[in-house]
Amino acid sequence: MSEKNRNDRLVVRGVDISPPIALAPMVGLSHSALRTLVQEEGGVGLLYTEMLAAKRLPHDNEHCSPLLIRSAGEKPLFYQLVAASDLYIRAATEKLHSLGAQGIDLNLGCPAPILKKQGAGASLAQDREQLTKVLRCLRKNTELPVSVKIRLGESVDVAHSREFCRFLQGEGVDLITIHARLNGEKFCRKPRWAVIGEIKDAVSVPIFANGGIFTVEDAQKCLELSCADGLMIGRGAGENPNLCAEIAQSVYGGSIGRKKSKTEIYFKFITLLEERFAPERQLGRLKQFTPYFAAPFPFGHHLAAAIQTSDSIEQARQRATDFFAENT
């Protein structure tokens, strides 16, 4: 691993990212409760919101929208926008300034059919004319760092990926995260970290690697193959909210406090949900989180099923108490 990979600090347009480990934007997961949970465990230097529709964002209420609720300690926080054109970018950017965003991310990687139909996400990445308009409007209306999250495209084409990253840098993008899978590939497909390594030296802006990082060993191998400046952790942080801290300690030499037990972490998450969200918003987010968190347990599917069929947060808490009493 190069000395550059071992650098435990990045500064992107004045924003300090230390260590260079980001918690990925994930629909239904990257809300205030999970961000705080992971942040309290340590080792995460950059946080992202869930995907925010540029058209809707200016009208959302940050005091009640589960997508915008944020505690004072969640910094630095980049807000992820999804858009198909530049039509709503200026208003969305003004809203993010009022919310105190530390950066703005443009989703160019999500291959979901609903976004494809709209011309957003990975589809926007393939429409150079529209993408140019969006990036120029974004750059014109903010001095904040602008980041993007992309995939490798429809097929492995290193020359095209290098040119695309140079284009992004030329249009004012300050940080590029590459999910090392093709647009249509499922999460079960092994990520192509080495391809990032073939792309990275095409640009001077930092490159973060994303995809398939569930252990410290995964992180080390990813950095070795990709030569990335940092890592973005997604589903791995859902399975193990300690993961960023473990990577920071092993890869970047960071120090972490007392490691909480899985039981403590799970009930802390429930508490955070109760503190941050209205009662009708809590149980749904617990149901989205639990299958990820339960996956590493030998009988984790029992916990996931018990929570999925719960009718209240109180019932879910009791069922979780019973599960951990039998399986710890």
Description:
- The chain has 328 residues and is α/β, with parallel strands linked by helices.
- It folds into 2 domains: 3-252, TIM Barrel (Alpha-Beta Barrel), CATH 3.20.20.70; 262-327.
- It is built from 15 helices and 10 strands.
- It is globular, with a radius of gyration of 19 Å.
CATH superfamily of the largest domain: Aldolase class I
- Got a strand count? 10
What global shape is seen? globular
Order of helices and strands: HEEEHEEHEHHHEHEHEHEHHHHHH
Number of helices: 15
Q: What's the number of domains?
A: 2
Task: Give me the CATH architecture of the largest domain, please.
Answer: Alpha-Beta Barrel
User: Would you tell me the structural class of the helices and strands?
Assistant: alpha/beta
Unreliable stretches covering 5 or more consecutive residues? 1-5
Identify the CATH class of the largest domain: Alpha Beta
Residues in helices, as a percent range: 40-55%
Largest sheet entry: 8 strands, parallel, barrel
Overall pLDDT metric: 93
By CATH, the topology of the largest domain is TIM Barrel
What radius of gyration results from the CA coordinates?
A: 19 Å
**What is the percentage of strand-forming residues?**
5-15%
Kindly report the spatial arrangement of strands forming the biggest sheet. 3-4-5-6-7-8-9-10
Give the terminus-to-terminus CA distance.
37 Å
